[in-house]
Amino acid sequence: MEKYGWQYNITGDQSNLKMEVIPPKDKIKPLPETLFKIYPLNSYSIDALLNSYIYGSHPSEFNDLFDCHKDLIEYDDITVIRKILSMKLGENHEFLLRFDKEENIKLFGIELFYLLLYSTFGIYCMSDDINNITIWSNYCNHNGFAVEFEIEKLKSDLVNNGYKPFGPFQVNYQNEIEKVSLIKNLSESIPYQTNIKSKSWENDNEWRLLIESLYKPLEIPEKEIDKLILPKEFEHLENPIKLLKCIKTEKRKFNITINSIRSIRLSLDFFKKEVLNRIIENDSEVIVNLKDGNKICVLNFIFEHSIDLYISLPNNQKFQIDFERYEIEKIKLNEFKLTKIK
């Protein structure tokens, strides 16, 4: 399938599935050796770091309301929708028997279909431009850290843990975005829906990894299931929403190894201003004391696993972020010595 000069292709069968997103020649960028994921400083980010996993999002969890939007697909193939739903609800469920006969039931079915379409796929977003000040602002408000992943090692980790990665694919940014027909482009609807965004996000320089869970369905965000409104006709019958909640799933946590991490970079506001000033003023080394438990966890992780550390520093002449590499040594529980590598 071609859209805006971009090719979206899926070939092979389930055992040998291949997915491609190919930009036009004037847009194509070579796949970088490494890509970056920015994390805000919170318990979820620390848990992912310490327990060695990446979180593969369901499309409904993105901060851009139109990203992977349900209505990017034209739901014009009732047979396919019914097939997907029957796999979860059972072929003879009363809901499916009336699915294409009553409009309100059909609309409810489309909502269910969208949630189930990504019950085996997680989406992991990264960027190739870590010096971009706006992505630090958008994704952690300059109070977080970035993990630099070696892409081939990351994909190898996912394969070794029983997952199937596709990509990472360069994201297609467009001023206007068209729907795609399900009946004409069933296979290509997933790479298209997950890899096209409004041009207003172009500065993110984003790449996306699609990760398939081969053996168990992935959890669907419960808040999205709770948004579903059951047609009145089914209030007295077996509730498909309850059936959806009863499906045995696994968390959207895809296990990796520390070996796939090349470096960790700390945001501008990771250290308090007075500490950052001491880092800037002392050209060789500085002792830092931390009270924030999340920050201590990050530095402990870097120290214990001998990961390359970069600290972001403000360049007030060029009005940009620069990174300097530092060695880290743990002195006490919350005290570290940072030594600049020249």
As laid out across the biggest beta sheet, the strand order is 4-8-15-17-18-19-16
How much of the sequence lies in strands comes to 25-35%
Query: What integer is the average pLDDT?
Result: 87
Q: Total strand count, please?
A: 19
- Over all CA atoms, what is the radius of gyration? 23 Å
Number of helices: 11
Order of helices and strands: EEEEHEEHHHEHEHEEEHEEHHEEHEHEEE
Q: Decide which structural class fits the backbone.
A: alpha+beta
- Summed up, the domain count is 2
The CA-CA distance between the termini, in Å, is 50 Å
Uncertain segments: none
Report the major sheet. Answer: 7 strands, mixed
Q: What overall form do the CA principal axes indicate?
A: elongated
The percent of residues in helical segments reads 25-40%
Compose a concise summary of this entry:
By secondary structure, this protein is α+β, with helices and mostly antiparallel strands. It has eleven helices and 19 strands. 28% of the residues lie in helices and 30% in strands.
